[in-house]
User: Fold this.
Amino acid sequence: MQFLYYAIFSVIIVIADQVTKYFTVANIGLYEDVPFIPGLLQLTYVRNTGAAFSSFEGQQWLFALVFLIFTGAILYEYFKKPMPFTKLERWCIAAIYAGGLGNMIDRIRLGYVVDMIETTFMEFPVFNVADCFITCGCILLMAHLFLCNKEFWKEEKKS
Assistant:
């Protein structure tokens, strides 16, 4: 039953991501800047054919392969060989997966990812809602694994 909650959470994230991308494409011209939070953020519609910081540009097949492997690993881990993840860590994994799915939908449908959030207080690549969930999910997951989940790092005793 818990898996259903993670799936619903992921679907909500994907919907939020796709809705923000839809409104960006419908209302902002390509490379147009729209002030959002003065001094902090602006909305800028950008098409990204790569990954983070436009790395691996044009390698759509690679992103699809990585996403399929990630999907398989999650399903295998959850249903066949559960690891000692806490509930919080599983929520983080669901957020990371949902962000990846949101971007994969763009890659399949459009051939690129729609990015729109740009920081104005520092130089940083334009990103989207899915990227936020991927990044925050990864940071929280790693922090919790290293600082709080000692069970994860224990080796099984050999009998």
About this structure: The radius of gyration is 18 Å. The chain has a mean pLDDT of 91.
